[in-house]
Amino acid sequence: MFTYVGFVVLDTNFAAVMHYSSFDFSLLYCVEKFDTIYDMEQGEKIIVDIYDFDKTAIPYDSALHYWYWSMLHCPWTLVLLPFQLFWGFLMVTKILPVPKFKKIAFNFVKLVNTEKTVKKYWDKHEKDIYDFFKPENRDPSRKTVLISASPDFLIEEIARRMKIDYCIASPHSKDNGHLLGKVCRKEEKVRRLNEILPNVEVENVFSDSLDHDRYIFALGKHCYLAKKGTLTEIDFDKEIATFDAKKKK
Fold first, then answer.
1. What are the respective helix, strand and coil percentages of the chain, to the nearest 5?
2. What is the per-residue pLDDT across 42-96, written as a single tens digit (0 to 9) for each?
3. Which of 45, 141, 155, 180 has its CB surrounded by the most CB atoms within 10 Å?
4. How far apart are the C-alpha atoms of 157 and 147, rounded to whole Å?
C-alpha cells in the first residue's frame, strides 16, 4: 500500500492530477491548461495561493462535522459508535496518537455509499463556505492550492465545486475509510506540496492556526490569519516569535 500523486496529460489543453492508492486510480480533478505542466518542466515557477480548509474556509472541522452528519442521516452506522467513542477518548487522553486514531476513525464509510453521501453532505453545507474562499473572490492570476488534514474523499468534492486548481488532503480508502498514508498536517503539508509542485512560489497563505500551519505560513510572501471568515494580514516572523515565547512561559 502506498500513495502516489503525479500528473497525467489528457491532451494538449488539459492535464489532470491523479491519485494512486491501493492500486486504484481516481481522478482528483482537472487542472487548468497544459501550460501549467509545461512551465513546471521548463523550470518556471508557478505562483500560488495556499488555503487551509477546516476553520479557515469553513467555520468547523469538516471531517468531524461529516461524521456527525453521517451518523444522523445513516443511522445504521451507529453500530460503530461505542468503538469510535472509546477510540476518541483514548486520543483525547493522548493514549492513542492522532495519526493512529485517524487510521480507524472513518471506518463507518464501509457501511455507506461514500460518493453519494459526500455529495449530499456538500449539497447541504456548501453554503457554509466563507465568501473569501469562493472562486469569484479569489485572484484568477494565481493558482489556488487547498491543503487539508481532512480525508481526501471528503475534500475532493468541495474542491471541485470551488474550482480549486490543486487539492492536497489526507489519503483515505473510500472503501473502508482507513488512512493510507500520513495525516496531511504540520510539516507533512509542505512535503506534499513540494511533491506535487516542486517549483512553486507562494504569494499568499490563509489559515486559522498560527501554530499548526506555521510550516505553510513560512512559505508565503503574505500571511493571513482567518477567524470566522475575517482575514487579517500578519507579520509571520514577528507573530510566531511572540507565540513561541508565550508558549515557553
1. 45, 25, 30
2. 567 899 999 999 999 999 999 989 989 988 988 887 777 777 778 778 778 888 7
3. 155
4. 14
Q: What is the residue whose three cell numbers read 494580514?
A: 233
Radius of gyration of the chain (CA): 18
How high is the mean pLDDT of the chain?
83
C-alpha cell read off for 8: 497525467
CB 54 within 8 A of CB 60: yes
* 202 neighbors 46 (Cβ within 8 angstroms): no
Q: CA 73, CA 214: separation in Å to the nearest integer? A: 36
* Residue 213 CA from chain centroid, whole number: 12
**Taking Cα atoms as reference points, which of 120, 123, 134, 204 lies closest to residue 162?**
134
DSSP for residue 171: -
The model carries a pTM of 0.81
Q: Where are the alpha helices (DSSP H) in 74-186?
A: 81-92, 98-104, 114-125, 152-161
Strand order in the sheet with 230-234: 166-170, 143-151, 46-51, 200-207, 222-227, 230-234
Mean per-residue pLDDT, 206-215: 97
Q: Hunting for cell 471541485 — which residue is that? A: 160
DSSP code, position 126: G
Distance between CA atoms of residues 71 and 77, nearest Å: 6
Cβ atoms of residues 174 and 197 within 8 Å: no
Cα 69 to Cα 72, 155, 183, distances in angstroms: 5, 15, 22
Specify the amino acid at residue 205. V
Beta bridge partners of 155: none
d(CA 28, CA 164): 10
